[in-house]
Structure formats: structure tokens, C-alpha cells
Amino acid sequence: MTMVSIPAPSIGDEIVNHGPKVYEDIKANPGEKALICMHTMPFEGSVGLINMLTATRLVRKGYDLTFLLYGPGVLMASAARGFPKVGDEGFAGNMAYNKQLTTIMNEGGKVVACRFAMAALYGMRETDLLPGVQGIHPLDILDCILTHQRAGALILSTWTV
């Protein structure tokens, strides 16, 4: 059998064509809203962080964004994360959720977390949330979604089990 030998890629090499964009760079029209619903466990897949990056992009495109955390998603907003001390990176990326949610809020997005999931499921208090994250009543989950639907918002909803 003939062996094919090609050089391995090196740091800085481009292995795919990263441009040009295929689609127009859409910006929000005045008053346009977006809602991202997260019902997923942090660190058990990439969907949580990917949706936070998408949320950040939506804020930067001008959307009035709400990032809704419910079920295990409320754990993403824990202000008590870190090891050996709160705020320390126990491993590379350990603080990514905290940093990205803070970026979303600092740039104008709103982050809300279900009080039922916080208290009944995970024993979290509202004081355990990152500064700026608003606790909401469990009956507000559906009304948040319906409010955004009535406003014609872009709604992304992610569930993982």
C-alpha cells in the first residue's frame, strides 16, 4: 500500500476559507426583540456557551435581547463558581459562562432566571446569581415567551436532558 504524506498544519495556517460571508450582515431594525431560552446543564455540551455567544451577537446587532434561564439553565448564572476560590478558573473555560453572561448584560441584554428552578431544584438564592441577573416567578416563563412572540421576536429555544 502506498503511504500518502502531507505536512501537518501549523499554528496560523488557514485550513478553510474564512471569507467572504455568504449572507448579508443583518442589523436589528429599531425595536426588534430577541429571546433565547436555555433549559440546559452548564458544561454538559457546547450549546449553553454557543447560545451565549449568539446572544452577544444579537445584542451587538441591536436587538433588545432577553436571555431566559430555566430548569438547569439557572446554574449558568451562579455567582459562586470557581475553584479553589470563587472566581478562580479551576480549568480553562471554567468561568466562561459567568464572563459571557456578564458581557451580555454589560452590552445591554437582559438575563432572567426562574426562581422555582433556583430554589426547588438547586437550592440557589437570588443572592447566588451573578449581579444583574433578575429572578422571575415560574409563571413568568410562559408569559415571557408569549410577550416576545406577540412582539414578533426572534425566539431560539434550547432544551437538553
TrEMBL record:
It comes from the Bacteria. InterPro entries: DsrEFH-like, MSMEG0572. This is DsrE family protein.
